[in-house]
Amino acid sequence: MNRLFAAALLGTSLTPMTALAADLAGVVQTYTAIAEAGYEDSLITAQALRDAVGKLVAAPSAETLVGARAAWLAARDPYQQTEVYRFGNAIVDDWEGRVNAWPLDEGLIDYVDANGYVQSSDNELATLNVIATPEFTLSGKQIDAREITPELISEVLHEADGIEANVASGYHAIEFLLWGQDLNGTGPGAGDRPWTDFVQGDGCTGGNCDRRSAYLVAATDLLVTDLEEMLANWQDGGAARAAVVEDPQAGLLAILTGMGSLSYGEQAGERMKLGLMLNDPEEEHDCFSDNTHNSHYYDGLGIRNVYLGSYSRIDGTVVAGPSLSDLVAVTDADVDARLKAELDTTVEALAAIKAAAENGFAYDQMLAPGSAEGEALIMSAVDALVTQTASIERAVAALGLSKVDFEGSDSLDNPEAVFQ
């Protein structure tokens, strides 16, 4: 279980923030504008993914499968930059599990290779394979799954029986359907689902190609709907936007909580150091597609975006305005300069992982036991993320706040517990 990493800070006076109230309002407006743009880009790329999935299902071929995979990869880049909004905003955190939950017991959805399948313990649905099972019993109730719809996925299958590993929706369910299992362990290669798994009638491999196609279409439609919902939350009149604009102090805490929690417990701990400690590719974030290097990079970039108050959109335009950096610089220029430098160092360390993966050294290979090069690359980024978190704490102190709680991780806070 994660522990909250309590950032006990110097000083309790709110005098600096009282003096900078007008500037704070501008900072929060920039924060919401970047959120709106990031979720809009996520929606646009998810709609493109839906179009590519439609082409794959209508005319399965090696080319249309490649096209759908490319669209999925493109959709991940803007979405990962929004993850910094998760921890400080309850609306986002409550919603996030529908679109980005991982790891998943993929046998809930489709066929798996039993020899290469590591499922959660005590999960009776881990091998359900709903694509091959049009009727089944769940919690004593007979379920009619003859028609695979977004409602079946979201209301019945996702986190069925209250088990988080029963991930039926979101990016990673779609990823599994497009790539299939990665059976290579810490060796080279991603998942390699054949395009014939989507062929209707003669030539279908894997069985139930019509239902597999239906599931893929429904899951992609659901992703688009979920992103439409979150975009609306950050537009004018949206609940997430109103919560921070109407109370800029709460908005400031949301910014800092999101930065610190993603930086420390989530990314440095749960997404990076834990997998390295276990040497386990099952802990890889985008494990079917071998895209984890990009997920990590864009998470780090998202943290820097909100601090600097600048986001580069998929169309090349830039959303920018008064930033948290500006606010911190007024109260402690040294803290601001230090944090900006450390954010750059983190992005550079994550970029080194990205470059290595793009040159043939995939993230799951970096996790292999005895891989000194992989460990060095990953730990360089982990250390940078932990270091910048300490400066996020300093920024909190510089702004006169008394305490902010960041998410923790046993891998960082209590390593012995990882192996218990």
UniProtKB/TrEMBL annotation:
Signal peptide: 1-21
Matches recorded under InterPro entries: Imelysin-like, Imelysin_sf
Keyword Signal: yes
Record Pfam families: Peptidase_M75
One annotated Gene Ontology cellular component of this protein: cell envelope
CDD domains: Imelysin_IrpA-like
This protein's UniProt keywords: Signal
Coiled coil: none
Localization: Cell envelope
Name recorded for this polypeptide: Peptidase
